[in-house]
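anyone seen this seq b4? input:
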Amino acid sequence: MASGVPSGRAVEDPPPPPEPPAEQKPPAAPPAPAQEDFSFLPLVHDIIKCMDKDSQDVHQVLNELKNKFQEMRKLISAMPGIGVSPEQQQQQLQNLREQVRTKNELLQKYKSLCMFEIPKE
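predicted toks r here
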């Protein structure tokens, strides 16, 4: 008791709230790569350095660059909407803008009905 903390203190602390079950969450997307994962320049720089030194590591670094290009191709092809043509994108954009315009008109209409009066106290 000299420390000022009762010996049973750790038992009395409530447990942290439980995380929501995984079933309630939408399927998790794969973790997003860090910003530096998109850069090819460090590998190109390494290739140039290896070539300047006449190093045998140049083949390994070239393979790393090739693998990075393949990974980025897979990532791009897996992006949502990548198969949508520019015309379809324009049509979707036009539809969404029309929805926003309609909703704004309805919002203005409802505001003008004075249904949302704030009571004065």
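The CA atoms of residues 47 and 61 lie 6 Å apart. The radius of gyration is 29 Å. kinda curious what u guys think
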